[in-house]
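If you are new to this repository, start here. Below is one unmodified record pulled from the training split, so you can see the exact layout before writing a loader.
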Amino acid sequence: MMDLNYVRTTCPYCGCGCEMLLETVDGKITRTLPSKTNLMNQGKLCIKGWNVHEFVHSRERLTKPLLKREGVLQEVSWDEALDFTASRLREIKGKYGGDSMAFLTSAKCTNEENYLFQKFCRVGFGTNNIDHCARL
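And here is the target side for that same chain:
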C-alpha cells in the first residue's frame, strides 16, 4: 500500500508568500499543488512554484563539496572546501579591496537567509555588489 501525504508549505522562490501543498508518495515529493485557501496566491502559482519540487530528488543535485584540482573536480570535505573559500576571499579582498568582489545568492533561500547573506557581504567584505535571482 502506498503512503500518500500532503505537506503544506510556503514557496521558497520569492518574498510573495505563496502557499502550496507538496504531494508525497512513500516519502518522495511527487507534485506541487497551489493552496486554494491562501489569500496571497488564491489557488494559483507561477511557473517557479509549480516546478519547485523538481530539484529536490534530482540526480544532478550537488550533495558534497567539490574543488577543482588540475582541471578536474574532486570531492573534498566541508572543512577543506570552507577553508579554501575563506582563504581565497581573504586574499582577493586584501589584494583588490571589497568592491572587487560581487556576491550572488539564490531564490531558493528564504528572505531571512538572503538578508543575512547581504549583511555578511556588506559588513564582512565591505561591498554593495550583491544580487539575487528572486526578482519577480
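Two things worth knowing about this chain: Helices lie at 47-50, 78-96, 111-125. The longest helix spans residues 78-96.
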